[in-house]
From TrEMBL:
It comes from Limisphaera ngatamarikiensis. It catalyses: (2S,6S)-2,6-diaminopimelate = meso-2,6-diaminopimelate. This is Diaminopimelate epimerase. Gene3D superfamilies: Diaminopimelate Epimerase, Chain A, domain 1. Catalyzes the stereoinversion of LL-2,6-diaminopimelate (L,L-DAP) to meso-diaminopimelate (meso-DAP), a precursor of L-lysine and an essential component of the bacterial peptidoglycan.
């Protein structure tokens, strides 16, 4: 079978997008791994498939897979790409698109080449956890912004031990059974942070992680009383923006703004 795909990226976090409205493509873990293979496939951090919204709660639905073939509940950078993809393949011409994810309904607003998404409210906030790692105890913070994230503050993101501490925290029993994504956050100035993310399901550092950027900004807001919006520089060099409405320790509205770019389209035999 010949599979048509579109390659996109959001701040360097790259995805293969498929129009699977008909349900003709069976996205097995093996097929996702093959498509995402950077040597033998198209190459990407994940695969996103457009689906009709069976529940009627939104305009469309998606399936999201990490490059290892695992399903994830949500993806911030992927959500912005998905919004532009729906425009291209369905002719969607409204200013806002709502689509269903495992984490809940996400709203996307088109702003030229950028997209702002409204995420589901964060859950499972746990501040000041101390984890006994091999290198000694480390203080970090947990928050779920659609998928689980650990956030730890470092003096210099360039020097952060992402490759060593990332997998250790990602698989730590505190976050069992499905583990967590891990963000290393440097405060650059008030309202401006830099984030490097070790991603679950990619099992490595990506150039950006939208839900990780959001998690890092919200934890920064809680710990350091930083007001909305917060600018976040990612490893790929882009700057994303996180805006929120906070009531006490609760975030009632959370938005992520950033780029979503088409790179190429093609076909592959599966
Ligand atoms: N890159 C994404 C997050 C994708 C899911 C994540 N790897 C997980 O399995 O939790 C983003 O931009 O948010």
């Amino acid at each position: 079978m010949e599979l048509r795909f579109w390659k996109m990226n959001g701040a360097g976090n790259d995805f293969i997008l498929l129009d699977n409205r008909s349900g003709a493509v069976q996205l097995t873990p093996a097929l996702v791994q093959r498509l995402c293979d950077r040597h033998r496939g198209v190459g990407a951090d994940g695969v996103i498939a457009l689906r009709p919204c069976a529940s009627g709660r939104a305009d469309w639905s998606w399936e999201f897979y990490n490059s290892d073939g695992s399903c994830a509940e949500m993806c911030g950078n992927g959500a912005r790409c998905f919004a532009r993809f729906v425009q291209r393949v369905t002719g969607w011409d409204r200013p806002v698109l709502r689509f269903e994810t495992v984490a809940g309904v996400v709203e996307a607003r088109y702003e030229g080449r950028e997209v702002t998404i409204r995420l589901t409210p964060p859950t499972d906030v746990r501040l000041r956890l101390v984890l006994p790692l091999q290198s000694g105890p480390v203080e970090l913070h947990a928050i779920n912004t659609g998928v689980p994230h650990a956030v730890l503050f470092v003096p210099d993101a360039d020097q952060a031990a992402v490759g060593r501490m990332g997998p250790e925290i990602r698989w730590h029993p505190t976050f069992a059974p499905r583990g967590t994504n891990v963000n290393f956050v440097q405060i650059l100035e008030p309202g401006h942070i830099r984030v490097r993310t070790f991603e679950r399901g990619v099992e490595g550092e990506t150039l950006a992680c939208g839900t990780g950027v959001t998690a890092s900004a919200l934890v920064t807001a809680l710990l350091y009383e930083v007001p909305s919006p917060i600018r976040v520089r990612v490893q790929g060099g882009d700057t994303l923006r996180v805006a929120f409405r906070r009531v006490g320790d609760q975030f009632e509205e959370v938005y992520l703004t950033g780029p979503a770019e088409f790179v190429f389209e093609g076909t592959i035999q599966i």
